[in-house]
Specification:
alpha+beta, six-stranded mixed sheet, 9 strands, 14% strand, globular
């Protein structure tokens, strides 16, 4: 899959104007190779097959002589999500639980229907070949491969739990340090030397500081006019000395639409105004958080406020959270 991802990126880099205007080129050059790599060969994919309701999905995925999901293809555009309602209608009309919307570079998997939820709440994952890591892209696409599609929900849930667990670790430096100290202390038990706890703690603290580049990336100088801006851009600038320790790591996570921080932001955007209590409940019921006391929920909220995406008024569970227009 890595080769296909890189080939798609090269194709779009050289001929983006073609893929922004020609849906047929998107399907043939970008989408078909991915589907084939995932095991969706011509034996299991029917293009442009009309449904009983006269809808015409671009691709119908089939197993055991049964239609199981639809894929809708679009030209490359920043407004890909605007078309999710069209595909949701196709799926709902035919009782298909899952739909896939793609322009060949961005892929969105969503659940077509679920009681008491809005459409964008039912996005299971989304990836972008031009922004996300190859490992993340492969892991997500693997959930919709021919062999894995029957296990789609389980595989996606497992991936989300891993991301949430990692977010919790990154947001809690003390927990991370304690874990390393515990493992190091265990490995040194049979050493011929005796180590004091304070000695191990100091060593681990130093090593974590040296390794902080694993969680953050150096910011480009604002005076470098020749460098192209990439990744998430804050709505406002905050003096570096005022950042809490977790801020850089959480701001970086805004670049991945599958992370908790973006799911929270999307929910707030859709609802316009939510309370802190409502947001915490949503994180547990839909976004994979284990409980409402999870430190990552609060850290994500404060990060969204500090980058200027949201504003917060009030205190406690009834405080109001809204988009910062």
């Amino acid at each position: 899959m890595n080769d296909i991802i890189e080939q798609n990126k090269t194709k779009v880099s050289k001929n983006r104007n073609i893929y922004e205007k020609n849906e047929a080129a998107v399907r043939m050059h970008l989408i078909d190779p991915v589907l084939n790599q995932l095991g969706w060969t011509t034996d299991f994919v029917i293009p442009n097959s009309p449904t009983d309701e006269k809808d015409i999905p671009d691709y119908t995925l089939r197993t055991n002589d049964k239609d199981i999901a639809y894929i809708e293809a679009k030209k490359i555009s920043p407004k890909l999500k605007d078309h999710i309602g069209q595909l949701a209608r196709y799926c709902t009309n035919q009782g298909k639980q899952y739909g896939i919307l793609t322009d060949g570079m961005k892929w969105i998997l969503f659940k077509a229907f679920e009681e008491d939820t809005k459409l964008h709440d039912r996005i299971i994952w989304e990836i972008d070949f031009e922004k996300d890591s190859t490992a993340e892209i492969e892991a997500r696409l693997n959930t919709i491969s021919f062999s894995n599609f029957p296990k789609l929900k389980t595989l996606s849930d497992k991936r989300d739990k891993l991301i949430t667990a990692w977010d919790n670790i990154v947001s809690n430096p003390n927990r991370l340090k304690e874990t390393f100290i515990e493992f190091l202390n265990s490995d040194l038990e049979n050493s011929e030397h005796t180590y004091e706890f304070a000695e191990i703690e100091k060593f681990v603290t130093g090593k974590l500081q040296e390794s902080s580049r694993l969680f953050t990336t150096p910011e480009k100088s604002s005076t470098d006019n020749n460098s192209e801006k990439t990744g998430y851009q804050s709505r406002k600038t905050i003096p570096k000395e005022n950042h809490p320790k977790y801020f850089a790591a959480y701001k970086k996570q805004l670049e991945n639409p599958n992370n908790l921080i973006n799911k929270m932001l999307n929910y707030i955007q859709e609802e316009k105004i939510v309370t802190w209590g409502e947001l915490k409940k949503k994180c547990v019921s839909h976004f994979g958080c284990t409980n409402e006391l999870s430190g990552s929920i609060g850290a994500n909220l404060k990060t969204l406020e500090r980058v200027g995406e949201i504003k917060i008024n009030g205190h406690g569970d009834n405080k109001k959270i809204s988009i910062n227009e």
